[in-house]
UniProtKB/TrEMBL annotation:
Subcellular location: Cell membrane
Record carries keyword tRNA processing: no
Gene Ontology molecular function: ABC-type transporter activity
Protein's name according to its UniProt entry: ABC-2 type transporter domain-containing protein
Keywords recorded for this protein, A-Z: Cell membrane, Membrane, Transmembrane, Transmembrane helix
Transmembrane domains' residue ranges: 32-53, 65-86, 98-126, 146-170, 177-196, 233-251
Keyword presence, Cell membrane: yes
Amino acid sequence: MTGSWRSVWPKGFGAGLMAIYRRELVQDARGLLAYLFAASFVAVSVLLAFQVGGLFEAGRADLAAFFQFHPWLFVVLMPALSMRAWSEESRTGTIETLLSLPVSVPALVLGKFLAAWTLVALMLILTTPLWIGVSLLGPVDHQATLTAYLGSFLLAGAGLAIGMAASAACRSQVMSFITALGVTFIMTAAGLPLIASTLMPILGTSATAAITSISLLDAYAGFERGVIDVDSLIHLLGVSGLGLALAGLWVDNRRGGGR
């Protein structure tokens, strides 16, 4: 079986990446889990916007009440979405076959990540009828709304990358989920004023500033307001890059330092 895979699998980085990407998308399309994730995100995010955020009670045509809950939804959804990436391969025994293919580790990691990120994009696209509905009620700043969607997409990517690293490091899906959930929650909650005010008397100004600087919530805040801040953009992309780099190191270690 392995030999037949080797005979047809492309060897180039780009071709290998696309092969892994298509493989993951096909697996998602054939299973129910991806559909459940998408339906859950759309239902819960819209419900929170109306029931908790008071979307229409604010008296203005914008989606601020919708976007404010995304960081906390992603704290749970992104670890849940990514926990199967490598842990499931270990559980089913397909990890050995996958790592034996003539595809580089970066292509393996990026292929899986981009497939999951594509699912996130589809989840966000499914919420656009809310955007259309609100725009029918009054003038909406479409540029600001599009920027907020971009921020949500980048924030989700950072959460996915953290989850991918946890999945590569943990053979158990449960441990992968718990680890990613803990790290993502800490990196999100670090931006809360309550955290800063609590740590300041204990750690001092410099240490508190260093801890709060990792906040995904702060990096997302500018996008939420419709502003693309370069530092925030670098922060979110940097977290994604670091998470994928760690995932690649752990996957390469399991491969035995191979290709």
